[in-house]
Write a structure and sequence with these properties.
The chain is mostly helical and 157 residues long. It folds into 2 domains: 71 residues, Rna Polymerase Sigma Factor, Chain: A (Orthogonal Bundle), CATH 1.10.1740; 69 residues, Arc Repressor Mutant, subunit A (Orthogonal Bundle), CATH 1.10.10. It contains 8 helices and no strands. The chain is elongated. About 8% of the residues have low confidence.
Length: 157
């Protein structure tokens, strides 16, 4: 069993299934591609399965990837809504006006803090304890992150 064999046998059907889930051809392509990357890492296992089990494995991986992506989008939306509630309304765009990829636009140095605070709901004291820094430093960095978001809000519209 090679990845080329799997691709030839399942690509068309997986693409149709991905389209039915994602309703977007680019997302469907990404889901199919990631499914085959995962399959490549598990070729030995897939070679031991019968054709029905192989098909079920590929479909389950694709579905799990889709669901993981949906959950990530929901967490990002929750982050945007939380930031909007905490920031003054006049200086920050509404969640509806922001692009869904907001979280990826935030610099890496702020992303973890924003995730811990606004997605996981951790306090600055809890974050500081986990990172080994004072809570005041966490609050300062969160302030800088929100300041960065405000400065770049035109990119989200």
């Amino acid at each position: 069993m090679t990845i080329a064999d799997l691709y030839e046998e399942f690509e068309t059907r997986l693409r149709r299934y991905a389209m039915s889930l994602a309703r977007d051809s680019d997302r469907a392509d990404d889901l199919v591609q990631e499914t085959f990357i995962r399959a490549w890492a598990h070729l030995e296992l897939l070679g031991q399965l019968n054709p029905h089990q192989r098909r079920a494995w590929l479909y389950q991986v694709l579905k799990n990837l889709f669901l993981d992506g949906e959950r990530a989008r929901q967490r990002q939306q929750a982050l945007v809504e939380q930031l909007t509630r905490e920031a003054p309304i006049a200086s920050y765009p509404s969640p509806e006006a922001m692009s869904p990829g907001l979280f990826e636009l935030v610099p890496e140095r702020y992303r973890g803090l924003l995730h811990q605070r606004y997605v996981l709901g951790m306090t600055s004291k809890e974050i500081g304890r986990e990172l080994g820094i004072p809570a005041a430093t966490v609050r300062s960095r969160l302030h800088l992150a929100i300041k960065w978001l405000r400065a770049h809000q035109s990119e989200f519209l």
